[in-house]
Structure prediction request, 363 residues.
Amino acid sequence: MKIIDWYILKRFLVTFLFTLLILIPIAIAIDIAEKIDNFLEHTELTFYQVVDEYYINFIIYYANTFMPLALFIAVIFFTSKLSNNTEIIAITNAKISFTRFLYPYFIGATLITIISLLMNHFVVPNSSTERKKFEREYVNSSRQKNELKYVKEFSLQLTDSTYIFIRNYNTQSNSGYDFTSEVYDGLKLKSKLMATRFSYNTKDSTFILSNWRKRIIYDDRDSIFSGKKIDTVFNFTPKDLIYKSALSQEMPSDELLDFIEISKNRGVKNLNAYLVELHKRTSMPIASYILTIIAVALAFRKRRGGTGVNLAMGIGIMFLYVFLMKIAEVLGGVAGVNSLIYVWIPNIIFGILALYLYLNARK
Prediction:
């Protein structure tokens, strides 16, 4: 690398870190203002506990979330300064093409992309587990807690031939009522197990069925058995009963992939909320390259109004990207659509914009 490359790369990374360090305290201040009443309601909650269990994980999550925004603002800011100080004129007079000028920018974007990918797929999910556990305990309303506490009218396909049906289940007490398990041979019912109440024993991973009744269907007769209590094993756990998109944020990508595969085999029809989260973990970091090209192309030439005009344009474009990303997430979570395409639509649209600006700037 030449001296000019090291100079640009250093300015790139320093400005990026500076921008990120500005955004994080703002996010913390807004969050404290929003949640201070919840913290004060719990007298047993200490300052150290709030920082250790919540805000450290909060910083990890939002530092990763703000990376594309910080990168975009940083590139526009320091490239505009290069342009206003006529440093870019000197670079172009040295017959360095716009494509060659992008070389250190892409090195910086690659470093940030690699860090973001690792955080998205492994670090942030583990951190989110602790953060959301704290929120469920001290921040969420009783209604939000009940949404995760109770499961109603739930069905699940365990194998090609086994199905279960649950009327109501309490994930906190690990107990419920009206449990049914049916085993089929093709379309023909072979056996049916019912229980008025059931509970899950976490120590040995068994289900305890109370007031149970089992019917076995033969070609010429039926056999019926019943009892007050029986211990049995099923190929699922209470965690499988909670299909909330928020839980996908708490799973590392390898665990999330396994969960999606198991759920598909169990006949769960709509897993797009989980697929959106999985695809987003890759699409957002890759957007660093697209946003870098757009930012450099916007700030490459000196404008009347200086850095302020470039920053205003850049922030507007960035928030348009975030807006499209949120719409794509919602539409991608709808049953029956290809979530991969929807998640990547913002990158495709802004990739076309980046190509246009690149070709225009190269002239």
Residues 3-41 form the longest helix (39 residues). The chain has a mean pLDDT of 86. Residues 86 and 302 are 8 Å apart (CA to CA).
